[in-house]
Design brief:
With about 270 residues, the chain is mainly beta. Helices cover about 0% and strands about 45% of the residues. It has two domains: about 110 residues, Sandwich (Immunoglobulin-like); about 110 residues, Lipoprotein YajI-like (Immunoglobulin-like, Sandwich), CATH 2.60.40. The protein has no helices and 18 strands. β7 and β8 form a beta hairpin.
Length: about 270
Amino acid sequence: MGRWGWRRFLAIFTLVWVTSCDAINNPTATIPPTEYPPVTLIVRTPSQITPSPATLDLSPATITPLDTAESGTPSRYPTPTPLSLQAQPPTCYNTFNNILCLGMVSNPLASDVTRLRLQIQLLDNNGALLNQAIFSSEQRYIASGAQVPYRIRFSAEQLQSAAGIVVQVIRADAVDNAVPYIALEVSGDGEVTANGYYEVRATIVNPHHKPVEAVRLYGVIQDDKGRIVGYRAVPLTTPLASGEQRAVNFSISPLLPFSTYILSLYADGRISP
């Protein structure tokens, strides 16, 4: 395929941000969905991840060549200095008129963190900087032992001369009493429909003593190699009262067909005054 064969990535459906309802219909695609083989659906929630103690130290970077979704092989990259918050190298997909790069950041710390900010840099063959972006994670609260997705879009022109990507955590704050965001309990399952979408049925619970507003539910699909092949962030339109549980149905369009998927569900929100 050539060293950086992103031009031949599989075309996918555009990810959709839902803003008006808690029950979400299938997004409309401009190209027919791919036929998918029968799959095994594994549902994982953050409570099933065992945290490991560590200290908060956020300075090293992970350097990796661009990973192509078409090759099906993991990226080869230099062994980085150990990270307290570990940035997974992204996998990049051709999405109509731009390139979508998706990866995960893991929090192995004994404490929860918030205000995660990442810097992504594009490098040429000589290591010179071509382009960069600094952005905040969509998830406002990252529990100990959990993972959060990151996504960034580049134009095809921006990746024309790119030979590698640097993913660096430049900020993550330990959670204290002043942080207004909290994690919520979430469970769910899903099934693959005939047109290749994942229909997810989730339930969010507010176990806290105060109402929680600005609630977001996140669904992440990973393949058997750990690469993100689907992502959706769903905002709720109304707050959750203390002790309230709410059903939320939404769909995710997988970017690639694989025999085994891992679906991870997360939810967070802001404590009401």
